[in-house]
Amino acid sequence: MSLLHTASTSEITLRVNGEEHHLTVDNRSTLLDTLREQLRLTGAKKGCDHGQCGACTVLVDGERVNSCLTLTVTAEGRDVVSIEGVAGLAGGAAAGTETAETAAGTADGLHPVQRAFLTHDGLQCGYCTPGQICSAIGALGEAARGWPSRVTQDLVAGVTGTTGLTPDEVRERMSGNLCRCGAHPGIVAAVLEAAGADPGEHGPAAPAGSAVPSGRSPR
Ligand code: FES
Ligand code: FES
Fold this sequence. Notes:
Layout: E1 9-16, E2 19-26, H1 31-38, E3 57-60, E4 63-66, E5 79-81, H2 100-104, H3 112-119, H4 129-144, H5 167-173, H6 184-195
Parallel strand pairs: 1-5
Antiparallel strand pairs: 1-2, 3-4, 3-5
The structure holds FE2/S2 (inorganic) cluster (2 copies).
């Protein structure tokens, strides 16, 4: 048996936002770099490049991952969704939390989580926003499946869907995503609203004309 590897690249088919791409990638390439540099999908952001800030979060088979820590070759054959594709997710906010609105998508073409970020002013500069939104969609999916978090009272029972999520649950589940602007109160309120829970007093309403968190800027 030999441990000698001679090929440094791989030919892969990557499915991103429902579209297949045939790529030659360096075996060491991260999914984040492939998305940004080869596919020109610059929504996922490079913050720390060390798995510490969450700015690069995308969904792989419906679960959130730090794309800066994910080798591109490991994503072959899986469904990758970046911020550019979240509006097209079937079923809306997260599997198991469909409402009439989420099943049909919102009238403005945004994912309900994107809409909630606008409503609750969950962004300032927007750099962390694509990762926050992908992470929120993933977190709501986890809650819909009953997965507990570190602050869940009964770890065995887990949680019963998303509508009972508390601010503490949302803060804990979103704790891997940092916002250098300090928009966390609005982010928590947005996730609570998207969960179908009470957003309470968390976060002010967005002023009219706020920018849409599409993930297209800043680069
Ligand atoms: S850029 Fe991936 S976690 Fe910070
Ligand atoms: S809105 Fe600026 S980093 Fe979060």
